[in-house]
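Researcher: Here's the sequence for the chain we discussed earlier.
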Amino acid sequence: MDPSTPENAAGDLWVFAYGSLMWRPGFDFVERLPARVLGAHRSLCVLSYIHRGTPERPGLVLGLDRGGTCRGIAYRVRASRRNDTLAYLREREQGTAVYRECMRSVWLSSEPERQVAALCYVVDRDHPQYAGRMSLEDQLRHVRQGHGRSGPNRDYVISTVSELEALGFRDANLHLLVQRLKGAHEPPPAP
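Model: Thanks. This is the structure I predict for it:
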């Protein structure tokens, strides 16, 4: 058995969330902690054909892309709920196989800070839905046009930024995008 797969990892399952899983996990968990992963960053780099867009009018959603650091949420799921959680997440996240499912080291913001292996959904750069780095104008166009099974793409981006703010995090690119979506062109005053 390969312990690096989520089915075979020992004990409870940790899941790292960096997008909609932060504010709408959809599975049972027993612990929720701010966390960070090194070597990957949150990026609005995935064309959405199902949840926030269609193939004809794709939206744009987040992927965990290589390089940098990403702050998000880690959820601890009881071992007894592992299979149900994995089935749910695979249905939700793997509809078009644009993400690679993997176990990564995640640092939990706890006292003391500790490291755990967590399930992560990392973008597959070779997948046709990988959009890479887009200009702000291209991002705005996709987000404004996108509407899929889970609702308007605009709501997805705004909800993600709201959750980041609630956690005390700031993502400069996403915050700028939300300002533009809401019609504000000037940065807000410093706190």
